């Protein structure tokens, strides 16, 4: 597909000239004559490259101000400044602000095409490096500054350099794999591989082959996850789903420090740290005889718990911001502002699917928010399943129900729901809740007591 280039210049003949040269080279060109047109064009579909004039006559914002906005919303979008006579110093300043390069008017067609090609290539390489880093887990970070997340991060930092086996528990989508990747990244094995095997998605028949590999009589070998992870970390996701037979074999590997491939006889020695995860209560699985107790103790030398998102609602704004930037980088959708009303709903929802569900919702909201760059995400855009945790809007069935009550009763119901939702939103922190809702801390305590909330 042809690369899409936006040319921002107040002079019509420059727009035409640059557009013509780029189209002759097989690019697609769009043009804008001022800042408003430029921002509208970028908002409707992110171009692959922007040529941006520094001095824009009759425009609300000049080139440097537009550059600043572009770098805020689309940090990876390459921008080449067009400088006229006397604006070279500004062009150099623009490079410090994140522009890729500049060309000086009047310019040669060859130079223009070369700069465009180089900027596009540099941007492609940057994206490729980032994708590789993300895939290898290097760039993945456990975000959130709630006390629960701070504790988790400290635990991971402390445990990482040891060689101990770790059992990570937590509900689905809460970040167990990310915690395991972080652990690996901070360990002495970080330059070795991080291999994932999911016991819930591999059939019991294939589980042993996936873990141990195969070996035929004529000596042909297929490497399994344990061998692949040599020198690094093997992450066994949903370990509780491991069939009993495989549990026996894994236990033997842990005791003997070696194993044989399926069908083979030669012993394979590997140096692998095993990190496992479970979204089930593994102690209960042990009590009920579904998981070997001795294996449980060997795998769970250091237990780590990842809290559900509902236990750390304060992290939600930071996560939303992070996912917006991440999704924007990969899809080109513009980063949005989430309105106070929508944020309140998102923070009071219980998120049974945890961080993964939040990320999916952020993506859906970015798509639904439409093409204009300044569109604010309001609570109306939220899907019904999330909106259900909202205190009832006027006109809703709940509001009609309240209408049937005397003021005192209706007020009490509303106050109770409102305060519970706000306290949850601030992770149970009464001082921050009081500050946000505009009440004295002691008055809020009295109110909660009178409504029978909390202690
Ligand atoms: N604290 C966090 N900061 C940033 N991203 C996070 C955080 N926690 C989870 N994520 C992201 O949420 C998604 C789900 O996380 P992950 O796959 O680690 O969860 P999980 O608990 O292993 O899920 P499952 O139980 O389904 O295997 C991933 O995209 C991950 O990068």
Automatic annotation (TrEMBL):
Gene Ontology MF: a single term: sequence-specific DNA binding
UniProt name for this protein: Nitrogen regulation protein NtrX
Listed transmembrane segments: none
Biological processes, Gene Ontology terms: phosphorelay signal transduction system; regulation of DNA-templated transcription
InterPro entries in the cross-refs: AAA+_ATPase, AAA_lid_NorR, CheY-like_superfamily, Homeodomain-like_sf, HTH_Fis, P-loop_NTPase, Sig_transdc_resp-reg_receiver, Sigma_54_int
Domain Response regulatory: 4-120
Key word Ribonucleoprotein present: no
CDD domains in the cross-refs: AAA, REC_NtrX-like
Keyword Ribosomal protein: no
Entries under PANTHER family matching the protein: TRANSCRIPTIONAL REGULATOR (NTRC FAMILY) (PTHR32071:SF17), TRANSCRIPTIONAL REGULATORY PROTEIN (PTHR32071)
Superkingdom of the source species: Bacteria
Residue ranges of coiled coil: 115-142
Start and end residues of each Sigma-54 factor interaction domain: 142-367
Positions bearing 4-aspartylphosphate: 53
Keywords recorded for this protein, A-Z: Activator, ATP-binding, Coiled coil, DNA-binding, Nucleotide-binding, Phosphoprotein, Transcription, Transcription regulation, Two-component regulatory system
